[in-house]
Amino acid sequence: MKSVFSFTRLFFTLSFKSFLHPKGQQPYTMCFRVKFYPQEPIKIREELTRYLLYLQLKRDLYHGRLLCPFADAAYLGACIVQAELGDYDADEHPADYISDFKLFPKQSLKLERKIMEIHQNELRGQSPALAELNLLQRAHTLDTYGVDPHPCKDFTGTTAFLGFTARGFMVFQGNKRIHLLKWADVSKFKFEGKTFYVIGVQREKKLVLTFHTSTPAACKHLWKCGVENQAFYKCAKSSQIKTVSSSSIFFKGTRFRYSGRVAKEVIEASSKIQRDPPVVHRSQLGQSRSYNSLSHKQLIMNMEPLLPALSSTKEHRDTSLGEEESAITGTGAEVERREQEVEEGEEMGSLTISDMAYSPCASMLPTPVEEGQGGVDFLFQSPGRLLKELHADPEMQAELQAERERELAREALRQSLCSPSSGRQQLGACIRSAARLVAAATVILLILLPLLLKT
């Protein structure tokens, strides 16, 4: 499985003590996730590795994490259908065969028709491996390819999403990328309490970006993600990776070092693999099975049950419109009017990152919370009781307590440095210590000098 892990990681971010919690319900489900996305999927040699990356990107599309304009969404959806259903067959596939499959969080009638058009006309004859490769090639050109969006607030209080990719550090607001800082221009990541700092260089000038998370634990997790992504994509060798501190040299901050191979080493190791290609076991959704036997769960197999991404206000309106469409059984004029409304709504904008909230300790397995649990604003406005429940793990409580103690120490030091009387006292103590040292040296010289003269 060496090649499989070239661009993927099977990782368990929770300790068994916290993962196998007594309150948990068996059986436990372990999930496979891509952690570092390859910058150029075409360089992945083995088909099995490409298939695993394809599964992750399909999940990202479903959750609204991989944003794409209408044309790209239609093409990616058609690639998924071609890879898992094969060529279009009029005898097996009814006129609306796409409508039973949920590929996107916002899936309109116009989008489904475009997917069917591409699937029937442009992708015919493509094997599952080729269709998956075409999806990877198109997906890696999108801004949000490989982004695990971390919700936060900028200095104005506006909700923003931070992401780390092979290209660098990105900031999104809605469906717009407002910042891209390439890894070569990123100097350091730092955090203090709930404040996250990105220090870099832009146009030959020092740049400091400041963001605020909901809890210190979320900020620490964001910092660790930034450090390990910077090391993975920026360093040429793993031996160049250094241990970094979250704070300045005057305070004891969190220390962290990414351990593992970097991107360049992974590519070099993959090119040296000499073995027979492993067998890829895909979901059996080929032409040999009738359409009626296909189900939504079968289409997204090899992935745990998915939750739709939380919708923004605009998405709620579009979703409601789509539900009304399916319920309408009126005249042809009414259907035509509804279709026109859908097209107008689709032209208003592309898919957006929803206000999704993550557990800071489990963002490595990122799944948006249910709508009833609230979004980013709810996370920032949660009362202390809810935050305490969110971080009920003893290790997390110890980290929070240590962070509070460090904050108190910093505050005490700031007050002592700013107080004039305290400064005078410290200066007086230093003078007295120096005087005592001089007096002791003088006494020693007076005792030793006569002895030296006699000899």
Explain the overall architecture.
The protein has 455 residues and is α+β, with helices and mostly antiparallel strands. Helices cover 43% and strands 11% of the residues. The longest helix is centred in the last third of the chain and has 35 residues, at 420-454. It has a domain at 4-144 and 277-307: Acyl-CoA Binding Protein (Up-down Bundle). The strands form 2 sheets. Strands 4-3-2-1-7-6-5 form a 7-stranded antiparallel sheet, with helices on one face. The protein has a two-stranded antiparallel sheet with strand order 8-9. One of its GO terms (cellular component) is cytoskeleton. Residues 1-237 form the FERM domain. This is FERM domain-containing protein. InterPro entries: Band_41_domain, Ez/rad/moesin-like, FA, FERM/acyl-CoA-bd_prot_sf, FERM_2, FERM_central, FERM_domain, FERM_PH-like_C.
